[in-house]
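Hi team,

As requested, here is the filled-out complex form for the adenosine-5'-triphosphate run. I kept the field names the same as last time so the parser does not choke. Let me know if anything looks off before we queue the next batch.

— J.
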Amino acid sequence: MGTIRSGLEELWELQRHQCLHQKTLQPAPLLLEKPLSEWPVPQFISLFLPEFPMRPVRGQQELKILGLVAKGSFGTVLKVLDCAQKAVFAVKVVPKVKVLQRDTLRQCKEEVSIQRQISHPFVHSLGDSWQGRRHLFIMCSYCSMDLYTLWSAVGGFPEASVRLFAAELVLVLCYLHDMGIIHRDIKMENILLDERGHLKLTDFGLSRRLSQGARAYTICGTLQYMGEREATAGGEVDLETPEVLSGGPYTHTADWWSLGVLLFSLATGKFPVAAERDHVTMLASVTHCESEMPASVPQELSLLLHELLCQNPLHRLRYLHHFQVHPFFRGVAFDPELLKKQPVNLVMETQDSSPLESMPFEDFDCDLESLVHSVSADSLLQIAAQLET
Ligand SMILES: Nc1ncnc2c1ncn2[C@@H]1O[C@H](COP(=O)(O)OP(=O)(O)OP(=O)(O)O)[C@@H](O)[C@H]1O
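And here is what came back:
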């Protein structure tokens, strides 16, 4: 199994060739996998049922690849055009071999079944999921910006933007926890922004069902992938919750710690504690640090951050009414429809001056694959097109 050349590798080659050698960039056809007609269904298919149904080839042919969005730790995300619906989607393509090698079959199926179950204005809902012979496909609507890219471009956010993003995330977390779901990977990279700049929480790859009051013990989250991230993404990493790092038990309160880290970073432009190389060092660092609150952080926000980044999970803020009466949220209506009506000026202003436009093109003679971590597919194709002229 390990020696099979992944269809995705072929795709990278195809895409790289297109980007560098075509004058007009035509959408590339999505890799077609042969129709599956055997009976009984072979194990490499049945293992992934029913979350990933088989599809006739006809269904796949209606999708065209427009570009590469990102390479996550599990799969590659492609931007595709659904010719029938005339709409653009993002498809995460995960090699089955990887799922089995990493023993993540259950988690992979759980990701899809959780995303299918939830429906919330600030959650990125599942469009479709299916399987081919060698890959699993997870399709969602396409978002051109994520919070990490925005934050990397602008640094610290103005207080009004932090408040709006915070309120939207509070609503999402309360909704998920009420549904008995713990996300376990709340971080900027997993928060996409819709065309009006509002949040769409994504990547339920580490989520699990955990009823209120129940406890989990698995050490997971971004730190688990730190070695890989250090090599590929310059060492950026979120900070894990003290109770998660210590091996548990932990509950839904772990997500609220992550929200604290995220809001601290949005407000100050930096993480509260530097990333460490392993769980043990990270735990020591998180336990002994009293994250220094810069004087520029307004008092009410500083109070909120302290109450979220509270070492004792029992004392951490975690219920909607905690936030509704909090001084930082004075005057905020915790209603998704009302929040969605608020303009997100920061996003609108940044969209026209994307950092990518100032990227030096002369230094482009490098691996495209390493670039997709920081650039959107659109920009990648634009850069390639400019190089050709
Ligand atoms: N619908 C989408 N529209 C635009 N970009 C997306 C979409 N879904 C995912 N991405 C981008 O692809 C990246 C990787 O996706 P995702 O997090 O789902 O994959 P992953 O393999 O689980 O990654 P990791 O575990 O490393 O976070 C995201 O951080 C985001 O930048």
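Two things worth flagging: Confidence is low (pLDDT under 50) at residues 1-25, 222-239, 352-389. The chain has three domains: 1-39, 45-143+356-388, 145-348.

Thanks,
J.
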